[in-house]
Design goal:
Layout lengths: L3 H12 L3 H7 L4 H8 L7 H11 L30 E10 L10 E7 L9 E7 L12 E6 L8 E6 L4 E10 L2 E5 L8 E3 L5 E11 L3
Parallel strand pairs: 1-3
Antiparallel strand pairs: 1-2, 3-4, 4-9, 5-6, 5-9, 6-7, 7-8
């Protein structure tokens, strides 16, 4: 996780200015800017934007520990990242195959533009297995919008085995019968009934993969 206080101190030090003077360049009084530098207050996006514009600061330094401080230090074939980003938490794993336990451990964030996100509470789950291939590849990060129901034919994250295990499957309803269908024909569907109940975590919106 990025230490915002350290980032600000590094920016000030490399600017060659006194802290108070640097704060003035972005329209902040001494006390207000000192609160941000000491980590007593959360740094607003408006302040990040001003620093980016006035001092050529790379906004990526505020969420990426390895990012260069200045936009001019970026490779010329890269586009700077907008400071207007949303942190979507990554929680555990979800099976694309036999159901596996979902560890509700925090595994970091993925950063998204708000323009590309749907409304609602969002999480990422990492897919494991090949039962949803080719639709969802093994190892991909699946964006889930938490909701208790999905439409027939949509892909859902579903808790099974007494809410102890989770799987990613296509939700199919035929009359009173609910079936969790894999997209990969090599895998067997899961029949949901009173002996094998299931609970929907949310709807799968899309997936991303890291190279």
């Amino acid at each position: 996780m990025v230490d915002i206080s350290k980032v600000l101190k590094d920016i000030i030090a490399k600017s060659g200015m006194e802290q108070e003077k640097f704060g003035e360049t972005i329209g902040l009084k001494k006390a207000a800017f000192n609160n941000y530098v000491q980590g007593r207050r959360e740094l607003p996006k408006s302040v990040i934007t001003k620093m980016m514009e006035i001092h050529n600061i790379n906004p990526a330094v505020f969420f990426d520990c390895d990012a260069p401080l200045y936009i001019r230090d970026l490779p010329i074939n890269l586009t700077s990242i907008s400071p207007e980003t949303v942190k979507v938490p990554i929680l555990g794993l979800i099976a694309c195959g036999d159901p596996i336990y979902v560890e509700e451990n925090f595994a970091g964030f993925r950063y998204e533009s708000p323009d590309n996100l749907p409304s609602g509470k969002l999480i990422y789950l990492k897919a494991k297995g090949d039962s949803m291939e080719p639709t969802i590849p093994n190892g991909s990060y699946v964006l889930i919008r938490e909701q208790p129901e999905v439409e027939n034919g949509e892909i859902a994250a579903v808790l099974v085995n007494g809410d102890t295990e989770a799987t990613l499957k296509r939700f199919k309803k035929q009359g009173d019968t609910i079936i969790l269908m894999p997209d990969n024909p090599k895998h067997e569907p899961i029949l949901v009934d009173e002996h094998n109940p299931a609970r929907i975590i949310g709807k799968a919106i899309r997936y991303t993969q890291d190279l």
